[in-house]
Specification:
With 442 residues, the chain is an alpha+beta fold. It contains 14 helices and 14 strands. Pfam families: Pkinase. This is AFC2 protein.
């Protein structure tokens, strides 16, 4: 993905923006009839992604992965019954199962017309899932129209069709086949981080994709996480060594670590990535749901109900970059106030202006005035338990999580995790950070 047209100026993008504006307005008009909040949490997602490695967002959630939703029991959902050799839409021959989710089932197939492998996402015959899948398909069509040469790192939708089976008419999405997710890569490596060179490459590509989505389409992804960033190549990672083994082992005594035992280590043969799962992506002119993102990647302005825009995606990227280095979720929590307290401990104290806005919204669940009438987090008195309070106290700062020679990575992450969204950089501005051009040997 690198080097393919990412250096264009804002002026050169204006032509593409004007061409896509009418599509955005049409899309906003259509989607205003469908409440985003009424859709399933993971929505449809970009079908092929699931395909690449059975790790796509919804598939990984159904498998009960760290930071994902509840585990899905096999007998809870009736899925489309398939068999090897099944022909769909007169051109696709199904070859294998890739994964299940609450939305439906993902299968790999050969496109006999184009002689290529694809992933087909068969949506369950449930109105809200079908409606949301159709919405995401339209978003992916907008992305494809704005990026015909596939330069901007977003999954590609090939087509959609309906499949008749057992008296049901099932909506299907056909997408390109990709490789494993970054989550599966970390999992395979026993939750050790990536090489610095690989983190640098992936971070740059994620920001380049966001620059395209935000500037050209006025579209916010709203669900960026490791499960939704996939390697472009399906080639198996190559055996390697982990360059920060000793440091990683020393960090295993930290409260947030899972004390995992090291094993074999692999490294991607190619670090080109693509973003997937646009099921909850939101255009600037659309209704903005009050809650977005998977918990651990959710920006503070969302938790504090202060409203959000495309800069919430930058916060999510900051969480991803940290996780790619440490192998651990930056904010391992399932409770909002504790989450805010962890942010304050890892990044910086919340600015008074931000908490004041939350207070004016009568959000006293999270903020309180002290004796000097200054707004602050309702912490530690709001902690649900002593263990929660202790957990926050022991949270490391961003710079404590990295080796000294990797200080620029901590600086980069810190620049994305600015608590006040009005001071957070755009994707374009974030691409100028020195970390992305520094030379690393590991």
């Amino acid at each position: 993905m690198q080097g393919l047209g990412y250096g264009s100026s804002r002026k050169s993008q204006q032509g593409r923006q004007s061409r896509s504006r009418s599509a955005r307005h049409t899309r906003a008009a259509k989607c205003s009839q469908i409440s985003v909040s009424s859709c399933s949490t993971s929505s449809y997602t970009s079908s092929d992604e699931d395909g690449y490695s059975s790790s796509y967002s919804e598939v990984s959630q159904a498998a009960g992965k760290v930071g994902a939703g509840p585990r899905l029991e096999k007998d809870e959902v009736q899925h489309f019954e398939w068999r090897a050799g099944l022909q769909m839409n007169s051109r696709y021959v199904v070859s294998k199962f890739l994964g299940d989710g609450t939305f439906g089932r993902v299968l790999q197939a050969k496109d006999c017309k184009r002689n290529r492998q694809v992933a087909i996402k068969i949506i369950r015959n449930v109105d809200k899932y079908t409606r949301n899948a159709m919405r995401e398909a339209e978003i992916l069509q907008d992305i494809r129209a704005a990026d015909p040469k596939q330069c901007h790192g977003c999954v590609r939708l090939h087509e959609t069709f309906f499949h008749e089976a057992d008296g049901e008419r099932l909506f299907c999405l056909v997408c390109e086949a990709l490789g494993m997710s970054l989550y599966d890569l970390l999992k395979q490596n026993h939750y050790r981080g990536l090489w610095m060179q690989d983190i640098q490459s992936i971070s740059k590509q994620c920001l380049q994709a966001l620059r395209f989505l935000h500037a050209d389409l006025n579209l916010t992804h709203t669900d960026l996480k490791l499960e939704n960033v996939l390697l472009r190549s399906s080639e198996a990672p190559a055996p390697s060594k982990f360059p920060r083994e000793e440091f990683w082992q020393s960090q295993q005594s930290s409260p947030s670590s899972s004390r995992r035992t090291a094993g074999s280590y692999v490294r991607p043969v190619c670090t080109e990535i693509k973003l997937i799962d646009f099921g909850n992506a939101t255009y600037e002119l659309e209704h903005h749901s009050s809650i977005i993102n998977t918990r651990q990647y959710r920006a503070p302005e969302v938790i504090l109900s202060l409203g959000w825009n495309e800069l919430s995606d930058l916060w999510s990227i900051g969480c991803i970059v940290s996780e790619l280095y440490t192998g651990e979720l930056l904010f391992r929590t399932h409770e909002s106030l504790e989450h805010l307290a962890l942010m304050q401990q890892a990044v910086q104290r919340f600015p008074h202006s931000l908490l004041q806005k939350a207070g004016q919204n009568r959000n006293d669940r999270f903020v309180v005035k002290d004796t000097h009438s200054t707004w602050r987090l309702r912490w530690p008195e709001g902690a649900l338990s002593e263990s929660s309070s202790s957990k926050v106290q022991q949270q490391q700062s961003l710079h404590e999580m990295v080796q000294k020679r990797h200080r620029s990575l901590a600086d980069f992450t810190e620049s994305l995790l600015i608590l006040d969204p009005t001071k957070r950089p755009s994707a374009r501005r974030a691409l100028e950070h020195v970390f992305l051009t520094e030379k690393f040997s590991d």
